[in-house]
């Protein structure tokens, strides 16, 4: 028995001893739109899987659309017989789910690291990029920050309502960054962060953001990029589940209110060599500038990953800390790429463009690929916003236009894989067309 199986069996045994009340375990994986899919296994079957029994799920689960349906994409879905594909358990991710009505376990699974990984599975796409960088002696250290909104659990005429805190019963309708808002929603926020920690997610700072019911949670810097993305994906699941216990809906929708700021996914990235030295700080920070140039140059071709649906594009061009062009700057939150003040050891860039609705595995894969190509090209970036407030590169603000640009990009195909690019772009194109295939009440008011 190999070391990984011994490790997995020990993890299962310890979990069963600590939680004898748990009868089922959800084995889960993230699909292209960023939803978890999987199967619920009796706890006694998990030991057999950990020992080496085959774990397979339909390959096409990865291709599900935003509403869960399948689209005809290349030779997949309706032309391949919907075959099973192998998955593996990810060590260290078997945790207790304590927000359901009955106690459950959950564990992440993936096709990366199997004999036949699925080329377009998001975690596998990121794993390939990380492995490529590792072969070059580049070790990324990553930290995610996620913004989200809380709403009242009850909708009114299908529309979200401001959340009410338990202390005063008042709606959170006076948005600001006052610390008192953290106190008013302390019970649900504390439960979210504590439950996240039980899932192995290392959360740090909590901020009350500008929108009503809007908050931000930061995660610790992580030398394992795959685990950093795991944390981000699992945190969304935790937050939605815990919020319902307190009469709230939690959403990572990019722009739920037109009049208030959208929710973003910010990613801090620093690069280290095998000796632990910061690569970005070398040679008077030239690698940092080259990395920035790569991010900005490739950004217009990666927009479907950073803004994955129709609503995502409503974030851009807002008045508060939201970019309308691909730009960069030192300590500038209006820029897509911000360089926080730091010493040489901790020099990093912060990528602020993606929405909170984006798939964390794919966003990180795209960002690291952009940095890699920038380091190789060794081109100086455009002027920072600190020197020129009009500096920036235009990016597509229409979903179908963005998809066309990504699908035609040889650089994106080289970095992320041509099969993935084909599958992803077709999935997003069909999702967008399905979304638009509806007549809204406004359309009747305007044109009837």
TrEMBL record:
Family: Belongs to the glutamine synthetase family.
Name of the molecule in the record: Glutamine synthetase
Record keywords, A-Z: Ligase, Magnesium
Organism: Ectopseudomonas composti
Cofactor: Mg(2+)
Residue span(s) of domain GS catalytic: 122-448
Taxonomy, superkingdom: Bacteria
PANTHER family in alphabetical order: GAMMA-GLUTAMYLPUTRESCINE SYNTHETASE (PTHR43785), TYPE-1 GLUTAMINE SYNTHETASE 2 (PTHR43785:SF12)
Matches recorded under Pfam families: Gln-synt_C
